Amino acid sequence: MLPRAERTGRAGRAALVLGVIGVLLAAADTYVIVLALPDMMVGVGLDVDELQRAAPLVSMFLLGYVVVLPLVGRVSDVTGRLPVLTGSLLVFTAGSLLTASADGVAGAVVGRFLQGAGGGALVPVTLALVADLWPPDRRGVPLGLVGAVQELGSVLGPLFGAAILAVADWRAIFWVNFAVGAVLFAGTATVRRRRGESAAAALDAEGPPAGRFDVVGLVLGLGALVCAGLAVNRPSGLEQSVQWGELLVPRLDGHEWTTPLALAAYVLTIAFVVRELTARRPLLPLRRTPAVLRAADLPGALLLGVALGGIVLTFATADPAVELMAPSGPWLLAGSAVALAAFAWRQRRAAAPLVPPDAVRAMPAWGALVVSLFVGAALVAVVVDVPILARTVVPGSSQLDAALVLLRFLVALPVGALLGGWLLRRYGPALLAGGGMALGTAGLAIMATWGMGSLDGLIDDGVLVAAGLGFGLAIAPVNAALLAAAPRSTHGVATALLVVARMVGMLAGLSALTAIGLRKLYSVQAGIESPAVLCPDSPTDCGPYDDAVRQAIVEQLQATFTGAAVCAATAALGAVLLLRHRPRTVEA
């Protein structure tokens, strides 16, 4: 039999591998909607021109991704990483099932919310697991790997969606997510058979003894998910089937909750809960749920979730082409301010607050949050505006051509993340993160000079690659600085706040930078003569007017890249000033 320490290490690394795969799956799912959205709209009963009604398919995913992170991170500090990893995969799998089988907008929106909540929770738990398994001076490479995998999703997501859509419809994308998520969920359960009892592993604090995982509970849980998803969404293929259609026929007229599938879902859910409450080795620590939520400060998490939700909806539901924030944005932000004030009051008075005072007290810890915020704001400008610039300055280019231009940056990003993790062996996080963001700043400054005739040579490709490497270089050092400064007992909630900071930076940055660009666009457009003046003989086919409009769009994007360069420079300066001190890690 293997020694306890070796069993602990092997189980921890097995859990980390599953977590990393889950992060890749969730990251790809974030971007797969880009290609699948038009077909999804038709599939859930929307016309292709009803983009406003389809907006929740995107915004609710982001909402789920952000609002649950602090609670999930804190729960992982209290109960251990493995139960939270298992639960997150279960939620993601359930969301994938609901989305795949949805015949209406409501079912798809709920499914996307659950996918966001489960997928987003995987990131901080996996980062915290790295800190549990490696000492501060050896975390660079695994942190770089997690960061690289997260960024790789932006490349693989659209490619995965395109490959599936080439041979099947959009539902197949989420059925694949369901299948992979179910396998990962089962995999995390098997890790318990090999885990050690050492508390240092932080896999399953006060959890069940090692041994075989609960196969019966796994079957009951997945069965309940499948039956519930099919009963709620009532897929037309099943409903119209001669052989299986009876499963969706109510046993009481007019009461859809009495279909055989719905009844089976109730029975399986109850059986799963009973099994989890009585099993010696349950999949989820349901017996400890009330105590865990008290220790994790559920009221504080709800207040912070409301505050973050208002911020997300303010920017995620806005049309960046015409407005800085959604029409309801002022009210949403006011509600967020009230909730944030209530959260601060709760933090000062709770016996066990959601964010322990020492979690981000040290300068490198809260400095990492500031740097991550500005990194997100700068990064989003490249991802969104480079394809627009490509289609503007290269006549006749398609959406695919524009995406291939961006691919140079996106491929360099995970490479930079791995490189940054490896270089942490020799250099401090302040130098690496600052240098990486300085390189990103230089790339954005050059992009701000691009105009008609750009993006047609190796030099421009090199700029995109260099910028991607620069942004990637900053990922692992920022994570490492936060984890080195925060006590071990707060790693989960600290990394969750880091992810939240980056997401909020991306959302707010997109709106703010687009607003800057639009001001420039309107200023330039005011000086363009009308087609009737420029081309009195053929105003409907006026080349000079079209050229002037394209130039106005280019100047708009140049202003946006300039603003992004300022954000990147702020991140570089913040990294040098705020991440330079690395106090001894508190292992409490």
From TrEMBL:
<dbReference type="InterPro" id="IPR036259">
    <property type="entry name" value="MFS_trans_sf"/>
</dbReference>
<keyword id="KW-0813">Transport</keyword>
<feature type="transmembrane region" description="Helical">
    <location>
        <begin position="172"/>
        <end position="192"/>
    </location>
</feature>
<feature type="transmembrane region" description="Helical">
    <location>
        <begin position="559"/>
        <end position="579"/>
    </location>
</feature>
<dbReference type="GO" id="GO:0005886">
    <property type="term" value="C:plasma membrane"/>
</dbReference>
<feature type="domain" description="Major facilitator superfamily (MFS) profile">
    <location>
        <begin position="15"/>
        <end position="586"/>
    </location>
</feature>
<feature type="transmembrane region" description="Helical">
    <location>
        <begin position="295"/>
        <end position="316"/>
    </location>
</feature>
<keyword id="KW-0472">Membrane</keyword>
<feature type="transmembrane region" description="Helical">
    <location>
        <begin position="213"/>
        <end position="232"/>
    </location>
</feature>
<feature type="transmembrane region" description="Helical">
    <location>
        <begin position="402"/>
        <end position="424"/>
    </location>
</feature>
<feature type="transmembrane region" description="Helical">
    <location>
        <begin position="257"/>
        <end position="274"/>
    </location>
</feature>
<keyword id="KW-1133">Transmembrane helix</keyword>
<feature type="transmembrane region" description="Helical">
    <location>
        <begin position="328"/>
        <end position="345"/>
    </location>
</feature>
<feature type="transmembrane region" description="Helical">
    <location>
        <begin position="431"/>
        <end position="451"/>
    </location>
</feature>
<feature type="transmembrane region" description="Helical">
    <location>
        <begin position="113"/>
        <end position="131"/>
    </location>
</feature>
<feature type="transmembrane region" description="Helical">
    <location>
        <begin position="84"/>
        <end position="101"/>
    </location>
</feature>
<feature type="transmembrane region" description="Helical">
    <location>
        <begin position="493"/>
        <end position="516"/>
    </location>
</feature>
<protein>
    <submittedName>
        <fullName>MFS family permease</fullName>
    </submittedName>
</protein>
<dbReference type="Pfam" id="PF07690">
    <property type="entry name" value="MFS_1"/>
</dbReference>
<feature type="transmembrane region" description="Helical">
    <location>
        <begin position="12"/>
        <end position="34"/>
    </location>
</feature>
<dbReference type="InterPro" id="IPR011701">
    <property type="entry name" value="MFS"/>
</dbReference>
<feature type="transmembrane region" description="Helical">
    <location>
        <begin position="463"/>
        <end position="486"/>
    </location>
</feature>
<keyword id="KW-0812">Transmembrane</keyword>
<dbReference type="InterPro" id="IPR020846">
    <property type="entry name" value="MFS_dom"/>
</dbReference>
<feature type="transmembrane region" description="Helical">
    <location>
        <begin position="366"/>
        <end position="390"/>
    </location>
</feature>
<feature type="transmembrane region" description="Helical">
    <location>
        <begin position="54"/>
        <end position="72"/>
    </location>
</feature>
<dbReference type="GO" id="GO:0022857">
    <property type="term" value="F:transmembrane transporter activity"/>
</dbReference>
<feature type="transmembrane region" description="Helical">
    <location>
        <begin position="143"/>
        <end position="166"/>
    </location>
</feature>
